[in-house]
Backbone:
């Protein structure tokens, strides 16, 4: 009887100790550590400001082209000022030559096509810049659409204007309008890359998706 009581006492003591150990033992966390998500809010805002400035410049150029579409005759004094530099370097252009070029550009609606699309595209680029500054994903998409419209207008209208310059002006002015066409394509291509950058950069994309930075540590 004494042995039985002693064994039962030892069993109860062992059970109590095991229960205490189970209570104080911490669970082992085998899950891998979660790394913090990088969130770049400054980058999209900077790109948004650049897009707004570029849109204002493009809008002014587009508005100027639309005005040229409705000007039937350019004053002789303005044409003489434009022709002063090429004529001083050996060109033999007259006021009538430049007026014929202007009439050809108007009749093909090159001014209107380029100006209207550049102005409309600049509005979308400006709206996209505001959206990026507010960290909205639609800002980058809207900016890309605006850049595409501006590129179509600049290249399409620029080709007709360059063709009119080749027919009536030639020489340095033809080269100037050709370079203007190439610069338009290069600038719009760079603007498109800048507008698309927040969609591909991880930190900027997280900021546009409104993801907060989360840091979790592995439990010891």
Residues:
């Amino acid at each position: 009887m004494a042995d039985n009581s002693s064994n039962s006492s030892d069993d109860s003591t062992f059970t109590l100790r095991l229960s205490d150990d189970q209570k104080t033992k911490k669970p082992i966390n085998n899950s891998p550590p979660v790394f913090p998500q990088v969130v770049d809010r400054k980058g999209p805002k900077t790109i948004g400001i650049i897009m707004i400035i570029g849109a204002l410049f493009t809008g002014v150029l587009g508005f100027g082209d639309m005005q040229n579409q409705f000007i039937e005759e350019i004053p002789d004094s303005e044409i003489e000022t434009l022709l002063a530099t090429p004529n001083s370097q050996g060109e033999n252009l007259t006021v009538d030559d430049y007026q014929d070029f202007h009439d050809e550009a108007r009749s093909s609606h090159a001014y209107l096509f380029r100006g209207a699309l550049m102005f409309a595209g600049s509005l979308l680029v400006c709206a996209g810049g505001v959206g990026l500054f507010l960290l909205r994903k639609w800002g980058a998409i809207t900016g890309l659409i605006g850049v595409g419209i501006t590129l179509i207008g600049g290249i399409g209208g620029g080709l007709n204007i360059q063709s009119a310059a080749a027919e009536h002006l030639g020489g340095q002015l033809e080269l100037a309008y050709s370079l203007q066409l190439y610069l338009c394509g290069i600038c719009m291509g760079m603007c498109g890359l800048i507008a698309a950058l927040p969609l591909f950069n991880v930190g900027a994309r997280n900021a546009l998706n409104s993801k907060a930075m989360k840091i979790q540590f592995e439990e010891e």
